[in-house]
């Protein structure tokens, strides 16, 4: 309602201004001023200086943006290959920034220098092969270099040595949650297919496959520091995209096919929380939350909990109504903690057996765990 009123007021203001200019024009009738529709030297001068004004606005806004929001982009990468991605990104930024700084200055300066003047005719200039070759070859070489470096970095990151000792983990996407499957002792994931989805076996693991006997299905991803993790992605329904920003990793999850990505985490969750930049960021977020909490409490509502940093696996494809809430916590442990955690997890086969033995109890218990509570709440909010 308020925005409608604001729009009406703005429209009325615009109409009033338009009427005022018309009245002003009428008062000028008969005076000696130039009322021609053709731009004169004075108009061209004004336009020339306005070009400079716009240039100043561009740079002031850019510099302001760098100071005001410069700390928002992702900081220290948490994976071994992350530095390569950041390097590529930084080189691209530096190139874009330099080229835009030079071309914008030239564009606006020439617009000012060659502004229209009375009785001055534009020079007819057909072409200049040398100039055209120059401004075609330089960008072609620079872009080719950038693309080649990108391809080199990409193949470097995506290459997984067959003989390398890696941990196999499957990430399973569905509207609107993530599930992880660990390959267990044999480090080989059992076969899976949507046709096998039944009861507790929500990932459709082929339980008759010998490799599936020790597979472990969890809703919170634990990985050890310093060990290469080989992820295999599947989707049950639509296109999703597994996005782990702190590890500079992203891969589409496509129904009907398996996609892959591998990386080595280099900071445990605890170590990453202790990075000076993260301490500062978290304290800033908590200052904002404290302010918001005070407002909420004043209204008689409950306050917000303080924020603690966690690595997240997010969905980066708009996959439906609760897409925004499709996330899974990633915990990077020390290798010892990881081993302890993995040993404490029950295998999928044992979970299925337990659910078959006591179907009534387990079906209700698993229902509760299968659907994260926040997702249900989120869906309700969307429906409202
Ligand atoms: Cu999704």
Give a verbal description of the structure.
- By secondary structure, this protein is of the alpha+beta class.
- It has a domain at 167-383: Immunoglobulin-like (Sandwich), CATH 2.60.40.
- Helix content is 49%, strand content 14%.
- The strands form 2 sheets. The protein has a 5-stranded mixed sheet, with no helix packed on it.
- Copper (II) ion (CU) is lined by residues 173, 240, 315, 317, 319, 323, 326.
First CA to last CA: what distance? Answer: 19 Å
Q: What is the CATH superfamily classification of one domain?
A: Cupredoxins -  blue copper proteins
Mean residue pLDDT: 85
Tally the beta strands.
10
Subcellular location: Membrane
Pfam family, one: COX2_TM
Keywords: Electron transport, Membrane, Respiratory chain, Translocase, Transmembrane, Transmembrane helix, Transport
Membrane topology: Multi-pass membrane protein
